[in-house]
Write a structure and sequence with these properties.
Blueprint: H1 2-18, H2 37-49, E1 59-67, E2 71-72, E3 79-89, E4 91-92, E5 94-96, E6 110-111, E7 131-135, E8 145-148, H3 153-164, E9 172-173, E10 175-182, H4 189-193, H5 202-205, E11 217-232, H6 248-251, E12 257-274, H7 278-290, H8 298-305, E13 308-315, E14 321-324, H9 328-336, E15 340-341, E16 348-356, E17 366-367, E18 370-379, E19 383-393, E20 403-416, E21 419-429, E22 435-438, E23 442-452, E24 462-471, E25 482-492, E26 503-509, E27 513-521
Antiparallel strand pairs: 1-3, 2-3, 3-18, 4-17, 5-16, 6-12, 7-8, 7-11, 9-15, 10-11, 11-12, 12-13, 12-16, 13-14, 19-23, 19-27, 20-21, 20-22, 20-24, 24-25, 26-27
InterPro entries: Thiol_cytolysin (IPR001869), Thiol_cytolysin_ab_sf (IPR036363), Thiol_cytolysin_sf (IPR036359)
Pfam family, one: Thiol_cytolysin
GO molecular function, one term: cholesterol binding
């Protein structure tokens, strides 16, 4: 009996194995093949229905929100300052990476759309179909195209490495460009750099002194040496990127994005604090970049030497490092080392481009928004000192008398828009109390006047010094005194320069008495 049961069981098992299992064609799929059929249709419809991620409206040029009226600066009285409040929200097709070791930004990575504006960049982990990547290198000894099955960080790295490990035929010079932006606040720095991934600008921000700097201006200069790009072939449909329907909760409420392009190379971000204008800094660094040996014009060198310059280096043959640039030679050394792509200088991720996971894969343009205040000051109250230094006698004495008894008046007037705005008297003597001056002698006066203008026209506003001079003959009536006449001189404000040696002039009374003046701008 036991033998019979055993034989029957074996027979039934054999029959069951021979009977085909009934199922639809859609239920059978290769786990390496993209979604197809109803699953693909439903998924593509879902992707088409998801909106773009929420972000501010793009404002390509800064908009003025408000302005404070001009006010005199408390610490530097010669300055008048005003604060303008701006809103700026530029859009970027390509974003700077600033983090060569990132584990979420790589060609083919899929990210949660709503995490992009926040800078979180949350990856979507799912069953992925194969993708095709290509490198823009044109002189490698082999194919620049690879197929990546089960795309993820490790497999993408491996396949990209297989491209880069091929021999390079000839030099692959980097494409070079640079741009400079003025930085006003820490909040606005991300906009100037063009980066928002995980507080990417923190390293750059640390190079600036936003609270207690002795410099007037701050700039960010981005210098790029682009070696190549790694690009992903766009899918015809979103479903082409998956072998199974992803967890819909992981996708989020907005359209996911994928990393379509990553640009590799070398980037130097110069943080510059200076009292020079943007135009002057731009010209100085342009000369340094164009120099054949690092030497530049003395004026350009002075601009860089008098600025605080630091460099954040990403990619190339060196590691990510913050360096201090001590002069134009350092600038030149940075850009000449690692200037070509090679196995030893393969570059680091510099920037990336995102595309929406929708049919047609439109670019996911990222808008970075900030409201910030810009306080600007300029010299509105220049201050000048005018000093009557001395009077000199050159034949002014009486016949038979070794000295002259001088009297009269020497004054100064400050003209703005052809109107006297201030006046002063430097020297004044009466006939009964004369100024005694010996033959060929010079006698100090040392009388100074300090005057202030408000936003003068330096080319047309001026300080006038003038006077009348008499020499008393005390032994005769009043009408026999010697009249040395009048003298005057206009000194225009543009002739008196701040930070330069004082201007000295003489006015002469009939060639017999010279009055020597010193003009200097002190603020």
């Amino acid at each position: 009996m036991k033998t019979y049961i055993k034989i029957l069981s074996s027979f039934l098992i054999t029959i069951l194995l021979l009977i085909p299992v009934g199922c639809s064609k859609e239920d059978v799929s290769d786990i390496t093949e993209p979604l197809s059929g109803k699953k693909a249709e439903n998924f593509n419809a879902l992707m088409a229905s998801l909106p773009s991620f929420n972000q501010p409206e793009e404002v390509s040029e800064p908009d003025i929100l408000d302005e404070d009226p001009p006010a005199r600066d408390d610490e530097e009285p010669s300055l008048e300052c005003f604060t303008t409040y701006y809103k700026h929200a530029p859009g970027f097709n390509d974003m700077l990476a600033l983090d060569p070791s990132t584990d979420v930004i790589f060609p083919g990575a899929i990210l949660k759309g709503e995490s992009i504006p926040t800078g979180e960049y949350i990856p979507i982990v799912a069953d992925r179909a194969a993708i095709t990547l290509s490198a823009s290198l044109t002189n490698i000894n082999g194919s620049p195209v690879v197929k990546v099955t089960d795309p993820k960080l490790s497999t993408v790295r491996e396949e990209v490495k297989s491209i880069l490990d091929q021999e390079v035929t000839g030099a692959t010079p980097a494409r070079i460009n640079f741009e400079i932006s003025e930085v006003y606040t820490k909040e606005q720095l991300n906009l100037a750099i063009g980066a928002n991934y995980r507080s990417a600008a923190a390293k750059v921000s640390a190079s600036f002194n936003f609270t207690n700097s002795t410099y007037r201006y701050k700039y960010v200069l981005k210098y790029f040496q682009v070696y190549y790009t790694i690009d992903m072939d766009p899918p015809q449909n979103p479903s082409d990127l998956f072998t199974d329907t992803p967890d819909l909760n992981a996708l989020g409420s907005t359209s996911p994005v994928y990393v379509a392009t990553v640009t590799y190379g070398r980037m130097i971000i110069y943080t510059i604090e200076s009292n020079s204008t943007k135009t002057e800094i731009d010209a100085a660094f342009s000369a340094s970049f164009a120099s054949g040996d690092g030497s530049i014009d003395a004026e350009y060198q002075k601009t860089i030497d008098e600025s605080s310059v630091k460099a954040l280096v990403i990619g190339g043959s060196g590691s990510d490092a913050a360096q201090v640039v001590n002069g134009p030679k350092d600038v030149y050394n940075y850009i000449t080392e690692g200037g070509n792509y090679s196995k030893e200088s393969p570059g680091a991720p510099l920037s990336y481009k995102l595309r929406y996971l929708k049919q047609g894969t439109p670019i996911a343009r990222v808008v970075l928004a900030s409201e910030y205040a810009v306080r600007e000051c300029d010299v509105a109250y220049p201050v000048y000192n005018v000093t009557l230094i001395s009077l000199s006698c050159d034949g002014c004495e009486d016949d038979g008398n070794p000295r002259a008894e001088l009297y009269g008046i020497i004054s100064g007037q400050m003209y703005q828009a052809r109107t006297v705005v201030n006046s002063t008297t430097f020297w004044r003597y009466k006939r009964d109390n004369t100024f005694k001056l010996g033959k060929g002698a010079t006698k100090n006066v040392g009388k100074s006047a300090r005057t202030e203008f408000y936003r003068p026209d330096y080319a047309n506003d001026y300080i006038r010094v003038y006077g009348d001079m008499m020499e008393a003959d005390l032994g005769c009536p009043f009408d026999c005194d010697d009249d040395f006449g009048s003298a005057s001189r206009n000194v225009y404000l543009h002739e008196i320069k701040l930070g330069e040696p004082p201007l000295y002039i003489n006015i002469s009374f009939s060639g017999l008495v010279d009055a020597k003046f010193r003009f200097e701008r002190v603020q």
